[in-house]
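May I ask for an example protein's residues together with how it folds?

___
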Amino acid sequence: MDASLLTIAPGAPEPIYRQIVEQVRRMIAGGQLPSGELLPSVREVAGFHAINPMTVSRAYSLLESEGLLERLRGTGMAVAKSARRARPEAERMSLLEPRLQDLARAARELELPASRVRRRFDQLLEDGE
């Protein structure tokens, strides 16, 4: 995995360490990060995204305590062998559900037409942005 695969939004309400944790969880659940895959070092992620190394370390430690990552002596952090590969679609959707609910609530609060929000969402999915 490369540090550039993580998307960090410093101005987002969600703390940066949580952004990292959630993205890594989703990549493991979706099968993008197979067991044994090495993660970029704390320094690499912190340097690439210009964030505090302790933030990255906190995220990695939390993922390790959940059993998703394991510390390999002299090598760094890797996806744990016990971490399940791609989960069934229903489980992966459940990881997305809270964000979809937030998006729907925000669209209603902004009084945006559902058809326009859907079109924009479809564009984002197709563009990969």
Remarks:
- The first helix runs from residue 16 to 29.
